[in-house]
Inverse folding.
């Protein structure tokens, strides 16, 4: 994971970058502690925390980290001498806020790093998920474990209250407020179920309004998501989004306990959609009924131009947003990425499930909050989970047509069947020159445009000429120059298809 990724995740509340002689894309592989009383034990790619070494005492440790090709070192007090030493050593220098506890910083930094697989694939860390939840709720988010230790938090330009500030720094909140939460039974509610809990503002304690929800694996509590109200009120969908977020976050917390559940669920969906695993087995793993209706929705970013890393970041944000919405809609929903697309399985559906409205809501939310355009295709609702590949194939056909020439944001095959069929025929013509009429391919642009207008107008010369903004006699002259028997319906059919392909 790059140093940039870690700095974005941790943000200003904890650390501030002083120098980065090798840039921010250097790879960080581990977080280690360097103690001035012990021999240096640091390796290439390490983020070294210089505990107990201030001022000039930190200089030899910085030089040792540079010789070991560490990615960065973190100190409590920076200075011009330390910055110069780091620059000379070729290692980034981070300054840690004085009130931050080293153990807390180590835990958070390792939490960011543990979201990568052995081959370096980023699975989607808790910090990114916290940012997604903040986007969907309009608030300021913290994710905590059952001991009230902050695991991740969202970035915000809004003013944070004292409770959030102390929590991020690894310190306990105001005792009168915590006592009040205990007396109200807030913690019991968060541990006992999925109910979203509302906590009123306490101006006398410097505490703003909050909502919170417990994170669970079955009946076992795993942690809590807290959403503080910022400068603006929380949005209307905040509580629903928070419920979905709790369900999405649970596998991440289990993963931190060395159980790769999050990746396992992605693999479950991929195995079901490709036929490598039967529906009954998958249903048993996610707590769904394989005999009930199900459907697949497929999402893709519109366009892939620009910087690839930026595109991948937007896609990861989109997938996080989709996961939250899907989990809020169906606890047993599965989300997986494949081939640049995000697949969503929605099991246990009612026969009249309104999937189009859910999908439009996701697409609209992505456009509004992520500032990116998303296209989505809704597969038909099939009667059982065994038939879910039919739903996937339908959705893929629609999304393929959207990528080629179908201008739509959300659609089903039933809505746009004719457009999809024509798009597929045009793709076939494009890929197979031998089944095209070479005379049509040879037409110059002006004649091609004129002929297509004539064919689209069903042979009405005046209507076609008006569309082309030319005199009808001009269009007749152009048509006479075309070496085709336009009285033959088959010639007209193939000409219209080939011209649309062009």
């Amino acid at each position: 994971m790059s140093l940039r990724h870690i700095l974005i995740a941790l943000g200003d509340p904890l650390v501030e970058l002083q120098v980065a002689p090798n840039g921010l894309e250097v790879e960080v592989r581990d977080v280690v502690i360097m103690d001035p009383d012990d021999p240096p034990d640091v390796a290439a790619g390490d983020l070294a925390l210089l505990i107990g070494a201030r001022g000039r005492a930190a200089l030899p440790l910085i030089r040792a980290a540079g010789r070991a090709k560490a990615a960065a070192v973190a100190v409590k007090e920076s200075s011009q001498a330390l910055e110069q030493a780091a620059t000379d050593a070729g290692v980034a220098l981070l300054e840690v806020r004085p009130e931050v506890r080293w153990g807390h910083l180590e835990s958070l930094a390792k939490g960011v790093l543990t979201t990568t697989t052995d081959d370096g694939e980023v699975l989607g860390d808790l910090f990114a998920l916290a940012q997604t939840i903040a986007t969907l709720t309009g608030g300021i988010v913290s994710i905590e474990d059952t001991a009230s230790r902050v695991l991740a938090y969202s970035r915000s330009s809004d003013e944070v209250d004292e409770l959030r500030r102390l929590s991020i720094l690894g310190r306990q909140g105001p005792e009168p407020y915590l006592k009040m939460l205990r007396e109200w039974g807030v913690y019991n509610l968060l541990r006992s179920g999925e109910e979203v809990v509302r906590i009123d503002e306490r101006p006398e304690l410097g505490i703003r309004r909050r909502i919170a929800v417990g994170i669970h694996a079955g009946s076992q509590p795993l942690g809590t998501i807290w959403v503080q109200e910022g400068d603006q009120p929380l949005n209307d969908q905040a509580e629903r989004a928070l419920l979905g977020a709790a369900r999405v976050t649970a596998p991440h917390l289990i993963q931190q306990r060395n159980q790769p559940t999050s990746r396992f669920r992605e693999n479950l969906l991929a195995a079901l959609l490709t036929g490598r695993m039967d529906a009954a087995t998958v249903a048993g793993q996610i707590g769904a009924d394989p005999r009930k209706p199900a459907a697949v929705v497929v999402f893709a970013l519109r366009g892939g131009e620009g910087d690839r890393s930026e595109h991948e970041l937007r896609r990861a944000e989109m997938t996080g947003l989709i996961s939250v919405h899907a989990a809020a809609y169906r606890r047993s929903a599965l989300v997986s990425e494949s081939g640049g697309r995000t697949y969503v399985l929605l099991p246990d559906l009612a026969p009249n499930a309104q999937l189009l409205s859910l999908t439009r809501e996701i697409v609209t939310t992505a456009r509004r909050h992520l500032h990116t355009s998303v296209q989505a295709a809704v597969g038909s609702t099939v009667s059982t989970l065994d038939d879910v590949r039919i739903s996937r194939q339908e959705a893929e056909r629609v999304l393929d047509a959207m990528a080629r020439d179908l201008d739509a944001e959300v659609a089903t095959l039933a809505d746009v069947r004719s457009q999809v069929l024509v798009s597929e025929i045009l793709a076939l013509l494009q890929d197979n020159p031998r089944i095209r009429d070479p005379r049509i391919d040879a037409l110059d642009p002006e004649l091609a445009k004129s002929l297509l207008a004539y064919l689209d107008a069903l042979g009405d010369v005046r209507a076609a000429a008006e569309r082309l903004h030319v005199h009808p006699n001009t269009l007749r002259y152009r048509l006479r120059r075309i070496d085709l028997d336009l009285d033959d319906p088959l010639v007209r059919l193939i000409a219209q298809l080939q011209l649309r392909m062009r």
Notes: The radius of gyration is 29 Å.
